[in-house]
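Lecture notes, unit on protein representations.

Consider one protein chain, 479 amino acids long.
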Amino acid sequence: MYYDVPVKKQKGQIFRCTSCGHEEPKWLGRCPECGEWNTFVETAAARGGAAEDGALPRSFPLSSVDPMEGSRVGSGIRELDRVLGGGMMKRSAVLVGGEPGIGKSTLLLQIAALAETKGRVLYVSGEESAGQIRMRADRMGLDAAGTGRIEICCSGKLAGIEKILDAVKPVLVMIDSVQTLQTDEAGPVPGTVNQMKFCSFELVSWIKEHDAVLFLAAHVTKEGIISGPRTLEHMVDTVLYFEGASSAGDGDNRFLRAVKNRFGSVDEIGIFTMGEKGLRAVDDTGLLFLVRREGTLPAGVATAAVLEGSRTILVEIQALTVPAKGAMSRVFSDKIDSGRVSRVAAVLEKHLGLRLSDQDLYVNVAGGMRIQDVGVELALAFAVYSARTGIPLPGGTAIAGELSLTGETRPVRRLSGRVKTARNMGFGSFLGPPSEGARMEDAEASGAQTLAADKSAADIRAAVRAIFGKIAVTNEKNT
C-alpha cells in the first residue's frame, strides 16, 4: 500500500513543478496547473537575492544546485533553436532587435504558441491591443491549444506586470517592446535610458529567480543597432538581430543572427520566409540564394560556398564596375563589408594589373543575406574580375577561399563539406585552395577542381588560369 510521506519544508524553500514551473509552498502529488504527477521538487525561493525579510544574500554550495535548472526548453521553431544553441535556456533573458515591421512581434507570438512547454505564457504588449494580437494569431492559424495557455497583458506599467508575474507564474514571458516599459521610480516618460535599464533589470531579476525564459523585443536605430544603452545588451544572456531582405519568392527572407550568446555559438543563422501565415523556417537553403538561369552566366557573377554556423550555403555574388562619377572611386556594398571589397579590389589591381582605381564598384548578394565568412573573398575576386573584363565564369563552378594581401589564396575551414554541398547541388567543379586535413579526394571524385597540391603555388594568378585557361593575367586591356 502506498502512503503519502509528508515532506518538511525548510526555511526559504519552495516546491516547483518541473513540467510547467508552477510553485507551491508545500509538496503536492499532482500539479494543479498542468495535471502532471510527482513533478514537484524542492528548490530555493530566491537564490543569490535578498530574502523577503530583508536579510543579506546568502551563499550556497555549487553541488547543491539542481542540474535541471540549466536545462533547455524547445521553442517549437527549429531555426530559432539552432541560433539559441539547442533551445531556450531556463532562467535566461533574450533580447531581439530589429527594424519596425520586420516581424519581431510575429516571432514572439509564434514562440509563445509553439513553445514545447505545458506552463503558462505571459505576452506583454505596450504597442498593440488584445484584439489586434488575437487577429494576428487567427490570421497565422496558430493552434488553439497553444494560444489557450497565453495570458495577454496590454500595458507597459512595470508595477502591474510584476503583480501579474507573481500571480500567473509563467514559464515564458514576452515583452513587446522594451521601449514601452515605464515605472514611476525611473521617471514619468517611457522609452528613456533610465526607464529601459531599470525595467529590464527588474524583469531579468524576476526571471533569474524562477524557471522561466524572458524575451525582450527592442527597436533599432538607423545605424542598425539596438536603440538605448549598450548596458541593456550586457544585462541579458542572448542578443539576437532580426534582419530582412526582399526576395523574389512567395514572401520576404528573414535572417536571425546572434551577436551574443552565453549558452551557444554566435556563428549560427536562422533563415525564414515571411508570409500570410507568419514566419516559416526554410528547409532547403540550396536554391534560395541562387538565381535560376538558362545558358551561360553573365559577366560579374560568381557562386560562393560560404559557412553559416554548422551548414554550408551556396550564394550568388554579383559585381558591377562602371567609370567613377567623381574624382575618387566608391564602393557600394551593404551585404559584404565594403572594406573587404576594397581590399580584394586592391589585390586584383596590384597582382593582376587590373585597373580598378577609376571604377565605382557595386557588389550584391542574391537573396539579400549578409556574408561574414572569410571564404567569400575568392569568389568576390572572381566576380569583380569578371565584371571588369567582361569575361563570364564557366557555369557549374563553386568557389571558396581566403585572399591575402600578397595575392595568395589561403585555405578555409571545412573545405570538404563545402565541396560536398556543391556536388549535391549539381556543381561539376569546385575552385579552392587545398587545406590541411581536408578530404580533397571527395572533390576529385566528383570532378571538382582545386588550385594546386602545392599550397605555395596557390595564388590569385593560378586561380585565374584554372578558371579561364590560357588567359594572360597581367597588363590586360581593360576596355
